[in-house]
C-alpha cells in the first residue's frame, strides 16, 4: 500500500526538466532558434559537462512547456501573457522570471525583384488586413499581393498583430507557415509575395524601409536605426524561467547576457540588449 501511495504522490508532482544533472532544455520561439542553437553550441564546447537541447515550435509552445514543467527555458519573441503567468502561479507558485536576451527589428520582406522600397505602417496594416490587394496601390507592379504569415502559436504572429495590425484580424488570404525560414523561402520564390520575420533571416529576399507615418522618413532594420528608436517595428527577444535561476542554468543565462554571449547575438544578425 505504501508503494502505491508513493507512486501516486510522485505522479502528482510537476515534472521538472533535469537541469540539476547538467542538462538544460530550451524550447520556443522559431525566430530565436538559430541564435539559441549558436549559443548552445559555443557554450557546450567550452563546458563539455553541460548538455543543452534546443527546439523551436513557437513562443506559445515554449511557454506552454514552461507551464508543464517540460523545459527549463522558454524562448519568446513576445512578452509573456497575463494568462500564461497565472498558469505558472497556479502550478509552481511563481509568476516566472523574464530575461531580455536580444533585440530584433521585425523585418518586412519582399522579393528581390520587387521595386517597392518602402511602406508606411498604415500601408502594411492595410495589406495584411486585405484592404490593399494589389502592388500597384503602393507603387509596385499591377499584380496581386501574396501574403505570407506565421502560425498563431508564433510570438512573431502575435507581436505583428498587436503592434502593426493594431489588433485587427489578418486577411483570410494569408498563408500561415510554420517558421520564419518558411516565410522567407515563400517570398524568395514568389515575386509578388510579402512576409515578415526576424532581421537575421534575409537570404534571398529584401527587407523594405518602414515609415512610422505617411510623410515620415523610412528606416531599414539596421542596428543603428533600432538602437536610435527610428525603426518603428523593433522588439526584445526574451527567455522565461519558472523561478530565479540557480546552478548551471544561472551560469548559462549569465553568459548569454555577458559581452561574450551578446557578441554571438550580433554575429547571428540580431542586436545586443545594451
Question: How does the SSE layout of this entry go?
Answer:
Elements: H1 2-12, E1 23-28, H2 33-46, E2 51-57, H3 59-68, E3 73-76, H4 82-92, E4 97-105, E5 107-111, E6 118-120, H5 121-128, E7 146-150, H6 155-163, E8 175-177, H7 180-189, E9 193-197, E10 205-207, E11 209-211, E12 218-219, H8 223-228, E13 234-241, H9 247-256, H10 259-268
Parallel strand pairs: 1-2, 1-3, 6-11, 7-8, 7-9
Antiparallel strand pairs: 3-13, 4-13, 5-9, 5-10, 11-12
Helix pairs in contact: 2-10, 3-4
Question: What would your notes on this structure say?
Answer:
The protein has 274 residues and is of the alpha/beta class. Helix content is 36%, strand content 23%. The chain has ten helices and 13 strands. A five-stranded mixed beta sheet has the order 2-1-3-13-4. Helix 6 links the parallel strand 7 (146-150) and strand 8 (175-177). It starts with a helix and ends in a 6-residue tail after the last helix. Residues 1-18 have low confidence and may be disordered.
- Which percent range fits the helix content? 25-40%
For the largest sheet, list the strands in their spatial order: 2-1-3-13-4
Q: Please tally the β strands and state the result.
A: 13
Give the N-terminus to C-terminus distance in angstroms: 58 Å
- SS field, number of helical segments: 10
**Computed Rg:** 21 Å
Mean pLDDT: 90
Strand content: 15-25%
The coarse silhouette is globular
Essential attributes:
disordered N terminus; alpha/beta; 274 residues; 5-stranded mixed sheet; 10 helices
Amino acid at each position: 500500500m505504501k508503494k502505491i501511495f508513493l507512486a501516486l504522490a510522485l505522479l502528482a508532482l510537476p515534472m521538472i526538466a533535469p537541469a540539476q544533472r547538467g542538462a538544460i532544455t530550451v524550447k520556443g520561439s522559431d525566430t530565436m532558434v538559430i541564435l539559441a542553437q549558436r549559443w548552445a553550441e559555443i557554450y557546450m564546447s567550452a563546458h563539455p559537462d553541460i548538455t543543452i537541447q534546443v527546439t523551436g515550435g513557437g513562443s506559445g509552445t515554449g511557454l506552454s512547456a514552461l507551464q508543464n514543467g517540460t523545459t527549463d527555458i522558454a524562448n519568446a519573441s513576445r512578452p509573456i501573457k497575463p494568462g500564461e503567468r497565472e498558469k505558472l502561479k497556479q502550478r509552481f507558485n511563481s509568476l516566472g522570471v523574464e530575461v531580455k536576451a536580444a533585440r530584433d527589428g521585425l523585418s518586412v520582406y519582399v522579393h528581390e525583384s520587387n521595386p517597392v522600397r518602402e511602406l508606411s505602417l498604415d500601408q502594411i496594416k492595410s495589406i495584411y488586413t486585405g484592404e490593399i490587394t494589389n502592388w500597384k496601390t503602393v507603387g509596385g507592379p499591377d499584380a496581386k499581393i501574396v501574403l505570407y504569415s506565421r502560425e498563431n502559436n508564433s510570438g512573431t504572429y502575435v507581436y505583428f498583430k498587436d503592434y502593426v495590425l493594431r489588433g485587427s484580424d489578418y486577411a483570410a488570404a494569408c498563408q500561415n507557415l510554420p517558421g520564419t525560414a518558411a516565410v522567407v523561402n515563400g517570398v524568395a520564390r514568389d515575386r509578388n509575395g510579402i512576409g515578415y520575420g526576424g532581421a537575421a533571416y534575409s537570404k534571398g529576399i529584401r527587407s523594405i524601409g518602414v515609415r512610422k507615418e505617411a510623410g515620415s522618413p523610412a528606416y531599414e532594420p539596421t542596428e543603428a536605426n533600432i538602437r536610435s528608436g527610428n525603426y518603428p517595428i523593433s522588439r526584445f527577444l526574451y527567455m522565461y524561467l519558472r523561478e530565479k535561476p540557480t546552478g548551471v542554468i544561472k551560469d548559462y543565462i549569465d553568459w548569454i547576457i555577458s559581452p561574450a554571449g551578446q557578441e554571438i547575438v550580433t554575429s547571428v544578425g540580431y542586436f545586443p540588449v545594451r
